[in-house]
Write a structure and sequence with these properties.
Layout lengths: L2 H4 L7 H22 L5 H8 L8 H12 L1 H11 L1 H20 L4 H29 L4 H31 L4 H20 L13 E6 L7 E6 L3 H8 L2 H14 L4 H12 L12
Antiparallel strand pairs: 1-2
Helix pairs in contact: 2-7, 2-8, 2-9, 4-7, 5-6, 5-7, 6-7, 6-9
């Protein structure tokens, strides 16, 4: 009997359930911010003297940077670390929400909404990456992704309801003041539940560099490098790497095979016939 089957899944443990709850909270905060201000738009327009044309920037500014920087946030999570980017995005979102709640002019509010979208664009891909790496492929991951997607859809609908209740009960400023409290809880839970990682460990990418060899050689040489030594050792022992090293030795010699064939051809044929295509 294997010991892997006797071990409980991470989702069934207390830490796994709390991790899933944390990541669902991150998704809820990001999605609810897109719609929570919709009901408060008339109050915001009256208090900050928005025109009808410029009022659309209050919800659109968040969506603009949220969708525009999401790929950048995912790449930053791979290079700098998932927990670092999640924490940075949560801090940016919390500060910009406070600035938006205290805004006394339309320009400050629109700028705060742009910063909120940038912070959410850092949080969402980092949280989704943590989810897919924390839960193993199979039943655990499918259940976690299902819960995460359901919370995202629920947050978009709940934002309108919560915005109406908060605006009518506490005022328009509290539409921005509610989520910073949630962000503080998210920060504390992130440091407690999510382990840190070395920057660049999540990337796992292999970079290549091509150089044109001198002396008229038509061969390309490719050098492979990786940020992780273990991956570099495996790559150095691969058949493709050995073939590239053989090509490097041939191209670094004083005369390449193509040059030799060209000289033989030129000595046996007339120059009027034209040279063939050199091949290594």
């Amino acid at each position: 009997m294997s010991t892997a089957t006797s071990q409980p899944s991470f989702l069934q443990t207390r830490r796994g359930k709390l991790t899933l709850l944390l990541l669902c909270t991150v998704a809820f905060v990001d999605f609810v911010d897109a719609s929570i201000v919709n009901v408060a738009l008339p109050s915001i327009s009256h208090a900050l003297h928005f025109s009808v044309q410029s009022l659309q920037w209050v919800p659109s500014a968040y969506l603009l940077t949220y969708g525009g920087f999401m790929l950048l946030g995912g790449r930053a999570a791979d290079l700098l670390g998932r927990r670092r980017v999640l924490v940075a995005g949560t801090v940016v979102l919390a500060i910009s929400l406070l600035v938006g709640g205290l805004a006394g002019s339309s320009g400050v509010l629109v700028g705060a909404r742009l910063a909120q979208g940038a912070g959410a664009a850092m949080m969402l891909p980092a949280g989704l990456s943590i989810l897919t790496t924390s839960f193993k492929e199979g039943k655990d991951r499918y259940a976690a992704l299902g819960a995460w997607g359901a919370v995202g859809g629920l947050a978009s609908a709940a934002g309108v309801l919560l915005g109406g209740l908060i605006t009518s009960g506490l005022g328009r400023r509290w539409v921005m003041f509610v989520n910073p409290i949630v962000c503080v809880v998210v920060l504390g839970a992130t440091f407690r539940l999510i382990s840190g990682e070395r920057p660049g460990a999540a990337a796992g990418l292999i970079s290549s560099e091509r150089r044109w060899r001198p002396a008229g050689c038509c061969c390309w040489s490719t050098r492979w490098s990786t940020p992780r030594p273990s991956a570099g050792v495996r790559l150095a022992r691969s058949p493709s790497s050995r073939a590239l090293r053989r090509c490097w030795r041939r191209s670094s010699s004083t005369s390449c095979g193509s040059t030799i064939r060209w000289r033989r051809y030129r000595s046996s044929r007339s120059m009027a016939s034209g040279p063939p295509t050199p091949r290594c």
